[in-house]
Amino acid sequence: MRYHVGRLIAHLDIRVSDPATALPFYTAILTALGQSVERLEDAINSDELYVTASGTTGRVTRDLHLCFQAADRAMVDAFHAAGLAHGGRDNGGPGLRDYHPGYYAAFLLDPDGNNVEAKVDERVTARSAPVIDIVIDS
């Protein structure tokens, strides 16, 4: 089987009710997934994911299911442990799921109740590139 994964989403902003709780949670899980995290004022950025304070509107992201890719089972396990240690709640511990063969995942609820998942698809035998590099000429 072969399928294409491209850059469908330019960026995603998760607005949180309490940055003091949510930012350490997201920093920990993203770091466990091998991502660099940039600290901003009342926000973080990792690749094209932003986690920001709800601001003056008070609108908070709710009922979101977000799944991150992991390189292997150990990374899924580390994601789950880091999330629990930083205010996340268990929503399904690391393990194989019956979605398809080789679907190894873990689920957490972030401090605002969003369902955050990390998974590895063990059916994948090769990727065309480890990352997508985007160059902007100025």
How do the helices and strands follow one another from N- to C-terminus?
EHEEEEHEEEE
Overall mean confidence score, pLDDT: 91
The counted number of beta strands is 9
Structural class: alpha+beta
Tell me what the structure shows.
The chain has 138 residues and is an alpha+beta fold. Helix content is 20%, strand content 29%. It contains two helices and nine strands. Strands 5, 6, 7, 8 and 9 form a five-stranded mixed sheet that branches. It has a four-stranded mixed sheet with strand order 1-4-3-2, with helices on one face. A hairpin with a 6-residue loop joins strand 7 (95-96) and strand 8 (103-109). The radius of gyration is 16 Å and the shape is globular. The N and C termini lie far apart (39 Å). The mean pLDDT is 91.
Keywords summarizing the entry:
2 helices; 5-stranded mixed β-sheet; 138 residues; alpha+beta; 4-stranded mixed β-sheet
Write a brief caption for the model.
With 138 residues, the protein is α+β, with helices and mostly antiparallel strands.
How are the SSEs placed, and which strands pair?
Blueprint: E1 12-16, H1 19-32, E2 38-40, E3 43-46, E4 49-53, E5 65-69, H2 73-85, E6 89-90, E7 95-96, E8 103-109, E9 115-121
Helix pairs in contact: 1-2
